[in-house]
Amino acid sequence: MGATALKAGHVGINVTDLDRSTDFYRRVLDVDVLGSSADGDRRFAFLGRDGALLVTLWQQSAGVFATDRPGLHHMSFEVPDIADVRRAEATLRELGVEIRHDGVVPHGEGASSGGVFFHDPDGVRLEIYAPSGADVAPAPTPGAPTCGFF
């Protein structure tokens, strides 16, 4: 397999409440439910857009996401432009989600790329960003990448 053949596929996330998380991800990422099951202990939802799978939610956990353990740091979703990031920010504010850095910020000092940083209902760190247009605000963490959630 050559390096050009490799690309990221969908992301699977363990959640504590499938209905709550499905509603959250549908609204924030503007995705559709492509398939789901609510059968007893086999509760899951496939979320995507235009038939392409982006996120799977699995109701297979309890508690809150542990950021102090090895494993996933955060998930990042790219959108075409900063207007899409601002739409996501507005949805997050509607939902009452706490936004890190109080809005859209660049990825770091001198960067034009950037976005909005927040947590899902189970504490998973998320980012929605655009490749350019975020340089209208200062970088919130001098000397460190914004997506570090410092």
Provide a quick synopsis of the model:
The protein has 150 residues and is α/β, with parallel strands linked by helices. It contains 2 helices and 8 strands, in the order βαββββαβββ. The model has no long low-confidence stretch (mean pLDDT 94).
Topology, please?
Elements: E1 11-15, H1 18-29, E2 32-39, E3 42-49, E4 52-59, E5 75-78, H2 82-94, E6 99-106, E7 114-119, E8 125-130
Pfam families: Glyoxalase
GO molecular function: lyase activity; metal ion binding
Keywords: Lyase, Metal-binding
Estimate what percentage of residues fall within beta strands: 35-45%
Mean pLDDT: 94
Rg of Cα set: 16 Å
Order of secondary-structure elements:
EHEEEEHEEE
InterPro entries: Fosfomycin_Res_Enzymes, Glyas_Bleomycin-R_OHBP_Dase, Glyas_Fos-R_dOase_dom, VOC_core
GO molecular function: lyase activity; metal ion binding
Protein name: Lactoylglutathione lyase
Domain VOC: 7-131
Task: Walk me through what this model shows.
This is Lactoylglutathione lyase. InterPro entries: Fosfomycin_Res_Enzymes (IPR051332), Glyas_Bleomycin-R_OHBP_Dase (IPR029068), Glyas_Fos-R_dOase_dom (IPR004360), VOC_core (IPR037523). The chain has two helices and eight strands, in the order βαββββαβββ. It is α/β, with parallel strands linked by helices and 150 residues long. Strand 7 and strand 8 form a beta hairpin. The mean pLDDT is 94. The strands form two sheets. The chain has a four-stranded mixed sheet, covered by helices on one side.
